[in-house]
User: Fold these one by one.
Assistant:
Number 1:
Amino acid sequence: MGCSSSLPDRSAGRAGGLNPDNGGDSDAKNLRVKGTLVLGKAALFFALSVVSLIQLPRYAALAPLYYRGAAVGVIVYDITNPDSFSKAQYWVKELQKHGSPDIVLALVGNKADLQDKREVSVQDGMDYAEKNGMFFIETSAKTADNINQLFEEIAKRLPRPSPS
């Protein structure tokens, strides 16, 4: 698998990747990426807009504007924090209620590198995902475990445009 992308450097107003002045994060809440994902012999051209809704409680009425028309919803919870799993369930319901009927939903248990601190079982995540027509995966943002697999699975599940 290969991936190419261009990340905007918002602080300098130019494309060029991550901004080292703020720890490498060009914008902690919003990210836009355009690129090509190569899976074997097939290439998927994409435009991706990532919006963190975790910071939106005070803007809850505006949240549907961010995900209306979205093709994919990735709902992430912390496997060491049961409260984050409950909040993830809220966002699943929101996306099911306000999102596109054919939205691809992924439930992601993050911090898989912290197995000794786990408080949400793998089975709980799998059961909830299956019950809600989602796919489930556990990842580690710290070690990058299963991050590529997450995006590969999303790419496989996205609807393909009809040939004209």
Note: Residues 1-52 form one domain.
Number 2:
Amino acid sequence: MKRIKRKYLILLVVWLGLILTGSCSTKKVGLTANQSKSQSADSLQIKNDPLIKDEQMAVALAEPILFRRFGKKHILRQKPYRVKQINNYWIIQGYLPAGSDGGVFEITLDGNDGKIIKIMHGQ
């Protein structure tokens, strides 16, 4: 009889210990399916605050890429650049005076995130 009481006493102590430490908690942790979908949609939503706001910023982002790809001296000789915005894309082109030999660069950047959409150089 003493042995049985002792077993129950040990089980009771272990059970109370689990409850007090929260190991047997029935509270669910995490997000519901709707909360998860809402949070994912919010993080993927395109904001109305584009990264590239003006011509100066577009050129500042494009130049280091162009310098590395085609050479700094070569790109700087194509100033003044022609910069235009179509929808939320920035198109930056080099300039050569009439009668000059060679081609010019062209780079297109996504205004929302600055990604390069197109980069090329004419012959």
Note: DSSP finds four helices and four strands in the chain.
